[in-house]
Amino acid sequence: MAAKKFFLFLQSYFVTDYDPTIEDSYTKQCVIDDRAARLNILDTAGQEEFQSLREQYMKTGEGFLLVFSVTDRGSFEEIYKFQRQILRVKDRDEFPMILIGNKADLDHQRQVTQEEGQQLARQLKVTYMEASAKIRMNVDQAFHELVRVIRKFQEQECPPSPEPTRKEKDKKGCHCVIF
Predict the structure, then answer these.
(1) Residue 163 forms part of a structural domain
(2) What's the pLDDT tens digit per position in 159-171?
(3) Are 179 and 82 in contact (CB under 8 A)?
(4) Higher confidence at residue 26 or residue 147?
(5) Smallest Cα–Cα separation from 39: which of 68, 65, 21?
(6) pLDDT tens across 58-77, in order?
């Protein structure tokens, strides 16, 4: 549930009722660091009953937001498993990911401390951010930071060639998956 509400904020609204689905996909155009970006976002909402589809999503993703709720220790404990599965599917030792502790506004219901989130991020070798879709905190920043991580990773993998044409630039997008 944390991922769904977290993402819906990017669509400029917050939902109070939640109906989990197999997946939802969205596209968002934005400018990040003076460069156009098209985010193709697939929100799997981490549904356990759709686990068979998860690896297919992982194969196509260029970057991942690993979202857990700071009010739900169980969602936090699942993150390590998701990260290991992504690396296995990608056959990589590292891949663009950011760890997000959502519902940071609910301090009185917190089951996972900020220090625990930071510690897990260090262990996974990813960036950690806390966010709240409800109070509009760090949601856009998380997606923007993921795009930066994806771009850096892609440049390291394949250094840039001569300046692409405008048409080539417009076609390029980032495929993000939220778990």
Answers:
(1) no
(2) 766 666 555 555 5
(3) yes
(4) 147
(5) 65
(6) 888 899 999 999 999 999 99
Instruction: Please check whether residue 165 lies inside any domain of the structure.
Output: no
**22 has pLDDT over 60:** no
Number of domains, the chain: 1
Burial pattern 75-85, b for ≥16 Cβ within 10 A else e, equals: bbebbeebbee
Of 70, 67, 68, nearest to 109 by C-alpha is: 70
Mean pLDDT of the chain: 81
Give tens-digit pLDDT for 10-20. Answer: 555 445 554 55
Q: Are strands 63-69 and 35-43 parallel, antiparallel or unpaired?
A: unpaired
Asked if the structure places residue 133 within a domain, the reply is yes
**Per the domain annotation, does 166 fall within a domain?**
no
CATH number at residue 124: 3.40.50.300
Q: Does 5 score more than 70 pLDDT?
A: no
Domain containing 128: what range?
Answer: 2-10+23-155+171-178
Question: CB neighbours (10 Å) of residue 40?
Answer: 16
Cβ-count burial 115-146 (b if 16+ within 10 Å, e if not): ebbeebbeebebbbbbbbbbeebbbeebbbbb
Q: What CA–CA distance (Å, rounded) separates 86 from 83? A: 5
Handedness of CA 53, 126, 175, 1 (dihedral sign): positive
The Cα 33–Cα 26 span in angstroms is: 21
